[in-house]
Each structure stands twice: as C-alpha cells, then as structure tokens.
Amino acid sequence: MIQKKELLEYALVYGDYKGIPKQQIRQYMEKRCDIVLRVDIQGAMTLRWILRKSAIFVFLVAESEEAMVKRLIDRKSETKETLLMRVATAREEVRHLNKFNYVVVNKEGELESSVKLVESIIDAEKAKLQQRRVVI
C-alpha cells in the first residue's frame, strides 16, 4: 500500500508500520460521515501538511503526567522499558500542543465528558459559516 501510494499517511510507530488507507477515508466521505482519526504527533503533523486547513486537530491528553503513568501501570500492558518510552514520548508530544486547534483533557473516570467535548467540537465546526473542504 505504501508503494502504491494508497495510504493518506503512514509511519513506523513503536516498531510497527501504521497507516490510513485513502480508500477507507473516501468511502466514509461519500457517506458524509464525520471522520475521526487516532494518530500520534508524527501522524498529526503529516496530516496537517497534507490536509492544510481542511481538517481540525484535537489533542487528547491525560490531566497530568502522573495520571497517565498510573493508567499505563494499571493496564499492566507495558514493560518497564516501554513505559519509560511512552512517558518520554508523551513529554515530547505535549510540546506540540500549539499546533492543534483544540485540546481535550481526558480526566480519569470522566471518559463520557471527554467524548461529549469532542462531539461539541465537531458540532461547532459544522456550524461555521466557512466550511472546510477536504479532497483525498
């Protein structure tokens, strides 16, 4: 898919290739669906370069570094090494907040509130007089 340029964006993340198939995005666009992509900072910056101002970017963050570390530890899905790498990555990612349109703080136990805030952002963007046009 990389060689055939069938991906909107792709990157090597934690040792695995991750990518967004263009065809999948086009199918949802044809259905006039809202499209939400979960990407890391590298992916967001690539998409910002590709899509320019035709998309909005929301930075989702835990309420603190301590809360993020606690969540990762509680999941029991990380080795000590991957935990340290995730924390270092998160510290670097927070430095790029100013490149996003919105920030949503996802507090422990308040997932529904975070979801509603993202939905509100989408609704607000739809109500703008100047609508964004995306071509993939």
From TrEMBL:
Keywords: Kinase, Transferase. Residues 1-123 form the Guanylate kinase-like domain. GO terms for cellular component: cytosol. One of its GO terms (molecular function) is GMP kinase activity. InterPro entries: GK/Ca_channel_bsu, Guanylate_kin-like_dom, P-loop_NTPase. Belongs to the guanylate kinase family. This is Guanylate kinase-like domain-containing protein. It comes from Fraxinus pennsylvanica.
